[in-house]
Specification:
By secondary structure, the chain is mostly helical. It is 51% helix and 1% strand. It has 12 helices and 2 strands; from the N terminus they run H-E-E-H-H-H-H-H-H-H-H-H-H-H. The chain has a two-stranded antiparallel ribbon with strand order 1-2. It is globular, with a radius of gyration of 21 Å. The two termini are 32 Å apart.
Length: 292
Amino acid sequence: MKFADKVAATFARMDGDDDVWVFFEEGLKPESLRRADLEYAEKKSEDDVIELDLERYLWDCERALEGDLLALFDVVGHCQELQTPLPYWAAERIQKMIANGVLGQPVEPKTKGRHGTSSKVLADELKGHLRHDAVSRVRVYQTLGPCLFSFMMLPVGLRRIYSGKPLPDFGHTVDEAIEAARQSLSGSFAQCSFETLRKAYRNEKNAASPSWAAASDDALIAIGVEVDQEQYLPEHQSHSFLPHIPNLPSQMGVEVHPTKLDERSLRIIEEAKGFSDFNDFVRAVQDRKVVL
């Protein structure tokens, strides 16, 4: 079996709506390559990265042509990274936005309805998703109990707050989860009141990942979304742990690459392997069909 297939076979998905993946230890044992294969493997990796960058660039261009300003932000970033000229249509759009800004006019055409612009619609969709996801992650933490595994699945705001501190206790109720999520989102793009967060969590539509969820780190940071910094861990544990977390808003995605975990975390992983969907495992723990 190829290494990629081995990794795929060890995936356990947390939630189909959240796009959260957890990698188990068995998928992290690389196969040794013969010396003659090393140069090919390195070249193949470089080609894959370049191809992926181009795919993202073209996809962002398509979104920007449809009027997505955050995608236009990423198109400029891609051109800088790939050292390619800015497309003429993107340059014209930026020039027009600057001219409108100087004249005090809207930089984006207004649309009908209460939102005003298409970007406002997309921003509200992203806020709803981040709010729903933050509460959902705290609920998972409440279900699994405090351990390093569940801590790494918390929204980044809470991991930052409790970095270097003992594992927190967020209780067991929905209201306690909402309050913890509210603290996590405080000062961020999606900050809101307790009641607004409650409504966002109850709205199932917010579980779907909106288009802005795929924006680059730079674009998300520019609008005030907090992204993972790969540095937030609880108080020193009696084991080694090397986190590998992609720079995505933690409310949408987090990967845990453990080398050594505490006993409770290992027990969670072992029990979860019996479920094809990690969310089914969480529900089984909630229903006490699985005792950790």
